[in-house]
Design a protein that fits this description.
The protein is an alpha/beta fold. Helices cover 38% and strands 20% of the residues. The protein has twelve helices and 16 strands. The strands form four sheets. A nine-stranded mixed β-sheet has the order 3-2-1-4-5-6-10-15-14, sandwiched between helices. The longest helix has 21 residues, at 99-119. It starts with 8 loop residues before the first strand and ends with a helix.
Length: 349
């Protein structure tokens, strides 16, 4: 069966980050015609260019730019069919202390993407969001929630332009840059202690390749204005720390029993439990095997999407406290998957 992305021209913002770069890799494996790698970090552009190497049958373009710069986005999107919008500030504490910088990238930058996509005749735009956007307690979460809302309302502001906007929301991605596993690895390499905010903190986790595959499903399925919420297993952080120590300490010549642990406390803006879908969103949700699809309650003339007939998941919300955390043996399998893929090494890029 031909790939949905075969022969398509695709731009990825934030394309040198963990999620953006994995999207690029998988797009190239699916015979996209052109992939434009858009990011502001020239060092990471250089690294991914070295990794991908010379691929004469594929058109890969490396574009320096910032989503805050709309004229640059206009040029970058010329002739594009699809846009994956991954560029964002994602670290909760940094966004708490630099709140308007988060607004300028996550909110203003998203509006710039929307306007450039409409102007250039792009057919589909998908925002990569976060579980922090559900009932946000942080600046980062609030900006991502607003970005999701903007993508939904863009279906209205686009007028007669045949363009579709949607968002995909998921939790923590194991092995991504800035996630806990690379941090734990470095601490283990140095002999410990491994720092943890709270051992009973619970989070949604999935592997990077799995998150990207489900993101591709959302791009293909979107009708416009939806929020795709990916189902994810739940992990207790104390269990994750134990598994990571057992798996990585021998790799660095360390005895797992000798690696200490230190509880540092919850950081500004963090929660003990996480939410992926609120009760309000669940009213408009349809459940599939891999995700919840939340239809927009907004009425867009000429682009109405049936709401009530798609509702019936039977789930009134989707939160960590209602999910059974993974057993350590299952966490071990997840950690070994990212070790086998070398994702933890890419995360340093």
């Amino acid at each position: 069966m031909p790939s949905f992305f075969r022969g398509k021209n695709i731009l990825v913002t934030g394309a040198t980050g963990s999620i953006g770069s994995e999207i690029v890799r998988q797009l190239l494996a699916q015979d996209a015609k052109t992939v434009r790698i858009f990011s502001r970090d020239e060092h990471k552009q250089h690294l991914i260019q070295q990794e991908l190497g010379d691929r004469p049958k594929l058109d890969v373009r490396y574009l320096l730019g910032d989503v805050r710069d709309q004229p640059r986005l206009l040029r970058a999107m010329e002739g594009m069919d699809f846009v994956f919008h991954c560029a964002a500030y994602k670290q909760v504490p940094f966004c708490e202390y630099n709140s308007f910088e988060a607004v300028k990238t996550n909110v203003v930058g998203t509006q710039n993407v929307i306007e450039a996509a409409i102007a250039q005749g792009v057919s589909r735009v998908l925002l990569i969001s976060s579980d922090k956007a559900a009932s946000p307690s942080s600046v980062m979460g609030a900006t991502k929630l607003l970005a999701e809302k903007m993508m939904t309302s863009a279906m209205y502001t686009a007028g007669g332009h045949p363009i579709r906007f949607a968002s995909v929301r998921f939790g923590n991605v194991l092995g991504s840059r800035g996630s806990v596993i690379p941090t734990f690895q470095e601490q283990i390499r140095k002999g410990g202690p491994v720092t943890i905010t709270h051992p009973d903190m619970v989070r949604f986790f999935m592997s990077l390749p799995q998150a990207v595959r489900l993101t591709f499903d959302a791009m293909e399925q979107m009708e416009g204005g939806e929020l795709f919420i990916l189902k994810m297993p739940v992990v207790r952080l104390g269990d994750l720390v134990d598994v990571v120590i057992e798996e990585f300490a021998p790799h660095y010549g360390r005895d797992p029993a000798a690696i200490g642990k230190k509880v540092t406390g919850i950081r500004p803006g963090e929660k003990m439990q996480e939410v992926l879908m609120t009760a309000e969103e669940a009213q408009y949700a349809r459940e599939t095997d891999t995700m919840f699809i939340v239809r927009s309650p907004l009425t867009v003339p000429g682009k109405e999407v049936a709401l009530r007939e798609t509702v019936g998941s039977g789930v009134d919300h989707y939160v960590t406290e209602n999910q059974q955390p993974l057993a350590k043996k299952d966490i071990t399998l997840m950690v070994r998957e990212i070790k086998g893929l070398g994702v933890e090494e890419r995360a340093g890029r």
